[in-house]
Request: fold
Amino acid sequence: MATTPEVVCLKIPVPRSGISHSLRQLLAPHGLFVANAPVARFRRARTATPSPADTVTPSLHHSPLQLTLHPQDVLPEAMSWRLHEGYVRSVAWDLEGECLALGLWGPGEVITSEDPAIQPLELQCLTTVVVEHITFEPGLQQQHLRRERQMLAELLTIQRIRAGDRRLLTLLTWIARSHGQINRHGCRLSLSELNLTHRGLAELCGLTRVTVTKLLSRFRAEGRLVAVGDNDLLIPRQP
Reply:
C-alpha cells in the first residue's frame, strides 16, 4: 500500500554543529528522523488512502514472459514460445552424438519443447532472439504439429538426395523460400542474417563442413550462386 510522508515541524533549538547522536537514537525507534537545520523536521510515514491502482486485481497487471537471448543460447526446456525476432533451430542427437537438425524457425512462428517426441531436444538460437512465452492451447498445438511435420519431411527429403551438390542447392532454395525472398530473378537469401555457418548448413543437409565450403565456392564459380550486395546470395531462376 502506498505511503506518503507526514511532515511534523517542532521548534526545537538545534546547535549549528548538528543533531546529537543521543537524540537520533531516541527518535529512531519511533520511525522519526531529523535533518540538520535550525528547526528540526521530523518525518513519519503515514498510511495514505489507497489509489485505484492499488486495488486492481494483481492478475490484471500480469504480462507474458519475454526473453532476449543471444546466438548459441538455448531456450528454457518444456516451454512454448512465439518468436518475434531472430532465428532458432531445433536439434537432437543420434546415438553417436552427431547433431540432427530438425527445423529452422523464423519470426512469427511458434516453437516449443513441451513433450518432445525426440529427447533430448534443444531450441538453439542462431541469432539474437526475442521470444514471448505462450500457453500451448489445443488449436495452436495442432497448427504447430502440422508445421513441424511438414518441415521435418522437407528436411528428410533433402537429406535423402544422393548427389551432394544437388542436395546443398536444394537446401539453399528451401531456406530462401522459407526465410528469404522470391522474385523473377530467382531465390534470394542471406546466410549472415540467419547466422548460418558452413557447419550449420552441413548439419541441416547431412554433409561435412569441408564439402559445403567446396560446393559453395564451386556454385559461385559456375554462376549457380550469385553474390548480391555484401551478404546476400541469389539462386538464379532456371530457364
The two ends are 73 Å apart (CA to CA).
